[in-house]
Amino acid sequence: MLGPVILAASRSDRMRRLISAAPVTKQVVDRFIPGETVDDIVPIIKDLTGKGLELTMDVVGEDITTPEQSHAARDAYLALIDRLAVLDLGEQVEMSVKLSMFGQALEGGHELALANVRQVVVAAAAIGTTVTLDAEYHTTLDSMFAIHEELRKDFPQTGCVIQAYLFRTEADARRLAAAGSRVRLVKGAYKEPAEVAYQNKHEIDKAYVRILKILMEGEGYPMIGSHDPRLISIAQELAHRAGRKPDEYEFQMLYGIRGDEHLRLAAEGHRMRVYTAYGTDWYGYFMRRLAEKPANLRFFVRSMISKG
User: Fold this and answer.
1) Burial tier of 196 (Cβ tally within 10 Å: 0-12, 13-18, 19+)
2) Distance between CA atoms of 181 and 215, rounded to whole angstroms?
3) What are the residue numbers of the active site?
4) Which of 117, 114, 39 is nearest to 77 (CA)?
5) pTM of whole model > 0.70?
6) How confident is the prediction along the chain (308 residues), in pLDDT tens digits per residue?
7) Rounded to whole angstroms, how far apart are CA atoms 133 and 150?
């Protein structure tokens, strides 16, 4: 299994230096991360929304070691929101944030992350959009869910992410599938121990379907984060059985992966949101995209061979 190896490499400074130095890397990274600045990403936002797609924007970066860096991350999101306000795209573009980027792992990090993300949520609400809290390692989830609950007191539209490969997630889904909630279900993209997570793809897929059924039968708003054609088909069937209308759930896929499918689902009347990342600190995000899907790794290796 190459996935765990790649995930381990995502935390390696040596591998970061090696891959970053490869001449072909930028060309390949651009497939998944189409810009470094707000100015870079605005044409992408205009293009995708013009095609009937919705977006969730992620300013990449997780290795925060000082409060000042966490404030800079917050300010990067606030700058994005300012630009979305000018473009009048608040209803089509939301934000996804990783609390590690807002200082969650620092001393006093729970309160620091809450203070930082609250400012982003307030600004997002002012332009008619919202924020979804991304899930990270299992050790961070209790803090993430507590922050999510606190934010929802004033901003009930704040979303969160749950990961199918974790044993705890079925219970989390039952708790979260309440009226007004917004929950994105993904398989999971971090290297987690066997004590807390399924390791076998078949078991993860079965867990995904069980959890998705909980969300579809609940009173919240499910967001299906998957590129898997079989799971997408199952999601449509579960939505039908639950009596959900097309605007009562949505599909989410990553920028750069299955772009034709994004357009197909949107053309069929589904809500289709593209998870679009940008920024300079791309390494960890990029490596997890390689780990998630063997085709991504093959694409990278072929590019290195052909361009090297």
Assistant:
1) middle
2) 10
3) 134, 184
4) 117
5) yes
6) 545 544 554 455 565 555 555 555 566 667 788 888 999 999 999 999 999 999 999 998 767 899 999 999 999 999 999 999 999 998 899 999 999 999 999 999 999 999 999 999 999 999 999 999 999 999 999 999 999 999 999 999 999 999 999 999 999 999 999 999 999 999 998 889 999 999 999 999 999 999 999 999 999 999 999 999 999 999 999 999 999 999 999 999 999 889 999 999 999 999 999 999 998 776 666 666 666 655 555 555 554 444 43
7) 12
User: Residue 34: what residue type?
Assistant: P
The residue with tokens 């219970």 is 171
